[in-house]
Design brief:
The protein is α/β, with parallel strands linked by helices and 457 residues long. Helices cover 40% and strands 16% of the residues. The structure holds pyridoxal-5'-phosphate.
Length: 457
C-alpha cells in the first residue's frame, strides 16, 4: 500500500459522525418507501439507516450523513468498511476469476485459505474444511456432518441460541419465538437445554457454579430421562451467545461439555459465526476456555462482508463421500480472496486491538452498573460487548422498549448500535476501531441511557 493510501485510510479510521439532515433525510425516505413496497417484510430494521458508502468505522447514508458504525453490519466488517487491502484483493481476484465452482473443479486459493485457517484452528490438526456462503450454511453442514459421521440422530442445543434460519439451523435456534412461529415441524431430534445466562437465570449462583449446573443438567436429567447419550450426535454451542444477548459462557461450562462429549462419543460443535474471526481478542471465543471443539462454524467477520461460510472439523470427522454435501457458490474465489486479506489485517491489528480496547471499554461500561439505574449488567469479551437494560435492578424486569429507544436515540446522534436478546444493547464495532471512536460511541451511549432513565423516572 502507498503511504498516501495508508494516510487516507488512517484519516477515515479516525472519523467521527456528522448528521446534516433530519433523519431519515429525503433520499432515505424515498428508499424506505420503496423498500416497504418491494422487499420482504420479514427483515427486522431497528431504524431507517440507508447506507451508501462505508470506509473504516464510517457509514455515509444517501443524504450525506455520516455515522459511526458500532454494529459492523451485524459483526461482519471485522476490518472496517472497505478496508483498502480487502478491496484490492477483491478487485484483483474479480479481474482474474470470479467463479468456477469449487464443488466440481479445483482452485488453489481454497486450499490456501484452508491451510491458513488450519494454522489458527482452536483444535489440533489435521483439519478438513467445507465452504458455503453463510453462517446458516456452515451450521447445516455441521449438523449433517455430525449425523453422518456418528450415525446418530440426536442433537443438543441451548435456550437463547441463534444458529441461523434455514430449516436445519432453525431447528437449533432458540432465541425468539417469532423466528420459529408457524414453521414447524422442524428437523426432529433436537433438544434444547439451559445456557448459563447467569445474570438473568442464575438465581444468585456464581457464574462458575451455574455454568457447571447447566452442563450437568444434560448428564443428570436429559440423559437419564428423554435422551439416551449413545443416540446423541453433537452438542452445538456458542462460546459467547450472540443474538441471545451477548452472553459469554463460563469456561467451566464449556469444560464440562467437553468432558460429557468425550465420555459419550458426542461431537462438540463451536458456533463461532459471530464470536469468531478475532472478535473476542482471540481467533475463536472458545479459546478463552482452553476447550478444543471437534467442529467449528465460521462466517460473518472472516471475509469482511463477502459471503462465506466455513465448516472446519478434525480431519477424521469429515469422512463423508462425494455427493454427500456441496453448494454451487460455496468458497467463491472472490470471497476467499477477501478472507485471506481480512486474516492479514485481523492478525496484524485486529486481535490485539479487540483484546486491549475491548477491555478498556468494558471497564468504563462496568462503572455504569453503579451509576445508572437502568444498567443491570455489562458483559462481554474483546469487542463483543453488551449492556443489559432493566426497569429495576432488584427484579431485573426486562426493558425491551427502553432498550429500543436507546438504540434509536443513538442513531439520531450518529452512532449505530443494535439490540440483541430481549433487552440488551450490543457493541460489535470493526476490530480496527480507535480509542477516540470508542470514547465517542460510549459517550453517546451513556447519554442515550441517561435520557431514557430520566423519562422513565
Ligand atoms: C452465532 C450465529 N450462528 C449462525 C448465524 C447465521 O448466520 P447467517 O445469518 O450468515 O446465516 C448467526 C447470525 O447472526 C449467528 O450469530
Amino acid at each position: 500500500m502507498t503511504t498516501e493510501v495508508m494516510t487516507r485510510a488512517a484519516a477515515v479510521n479516525g472519523a467521527l459522525p456528522n448528521i446534516k439532515t433530519a433523519l431519515p433525510g429525503p433520499n432515505a425516505q424515498r428508499v424506505v418507501a420503496a423498500d416497504a413496497r418491494l422487499i420482504s417484510p420479514s427483515y427486522t430494521r431497528s431504524y431507517p439507516l440507508v447506507a451508501k458508502r462505508g470506509r473504516g468505522l464510517m457509514i455515509e447514508d444517501v443524504d450525506g450523513n455520516q455515522f459511526l458504525d458500532f454494529s459492523a453490519g451485524i459483526a461482519v466488517v471485522s476490518t472496517g468498511h472497505c478496508h483498502p487491502e480487502v478491496v484490492a484483493a477483491i478487485q484483483k481476484q474479480a479481474g482474474e476469476l470470479i467463479h468456477m465452482s469449487g464443488t466440481d473443479f479445483y482452485y488453489e486459493s481454497m486450499t490456501q485459505l484452508a491451510d491458513r485457517l488450519s494454522r489458527v484452528a482452536p483444535m489440533p490438526g489435521p483439519h478438513k474444511f467445507y465452504f458455503g456462503n453463510s453462517g446458516a450454511e456452515a451450521i447445516e453442514c455441521a449438523l449433517k456432518l455430525a449425523r453422518y459421521h456418528t450415525k446418530r440422530q440426536g442433537i443438543i442445543a441451548f435456550y437463547g441460541a441463534f444458529h441461523g434460519r434455514t430449516m436445519g439451523a432453525l431447528s437449533l435456534t432458540a432465541s425468539k419465538p417469532q423466528q420459529r412461529r408457524r414453521f414447524a415441524p422442524l428437523v426432529p431430534g433436537v433438544t434444547h437445554v439451559p445456557y448459563p445466562y447467569t445474570y438473568r437465570f442464575g438465581n444468585g449462583q456464581s457464574e462458575r457454579d451455574y455454568g457447571i449446573a447447566c452442563a450437568r443438567f444434560i448428564e443428570e436429567r436429559l440423559f437419564k430421562t428423554t435422551m439416551p447419550p449413545e443416540e446423541v450426535a453433537a452438542i452445538f454451542v456458542e462460546a459467547v451467545q450472540g443474538e441471545g444477548g451477548y452472553v459469554p459462557a463460563p469456561p467451566e461450562f464449556l469444560q464440562e461439555l467437553r468432558r460429557i462429549c468425550d465420555q459419550h462419543g458426542i461431537l462438540l460443535v463451536a458456533d463461532e459465526v459471530q464470536s469468531g474471526a478475532g472478535r473476542t481478542g482471540k481467533w475463536w471465543a472458545i479459546e478463552h476456555s482452553g476447550v478444543t471443539p471437534d467442529i467449528v462454524c465460521i462466517a460473518k467477520g472472516i471475509a469482511s462482508g463477502m459471503p462465506l461460510g466455513i465448516t472446519m472439523s478434525k480431519a477424521n470427522i469429515m469422512d463423508w463421500v462425494p455427493g454427500s454435501h456441496a453448494s454451487t457458490f460455496g468458497g467463491n474465489p472472490v470471497a476467499i480472496a477477501a478472507a485471506l486479506a481480512s486474516m492479514d489485517v485481523i492478525e496484524r491489528e485486529g486481535l490485539k486491538n479487540a483484546a486491549k480496547l475491548g477491555e478498556k471499554m468494558k471497564q468504563r461500561m462496568q462503572g455504569w452498573v453503579k451509576t445508572h439505574p437502568m444498567v443491570g449488567d455489562v458483559r462481554g469479551r474483546g469487542l463483543m460487548l453488551a449492556v443489559e437494560i432493566v426497569k429495576d435492578k432488584q427484579t431485573k424486569a426486562a426493558a425491551g422498549a427502553d432498550r429500543d429507544r436507546i438504540v434509536e436515540s443513538a442513531f439520531a446522534k450518529g452512532v449505530l448500535f443494535l439490540g440483541c436478546g430481549e433487552t440488551t444493547v450490543r457493541l460489535s464495532p470493526p476490530l480496527i476501531v480507535t480509542q477516540e471512536q470508542a470514547d465517542y460511541a460510549l459517550d453517546v451511549l451513556e447519554k442515550c441511557i441517561g435520557e431514557v432513565e430520566r423519562k422513565a423516572s
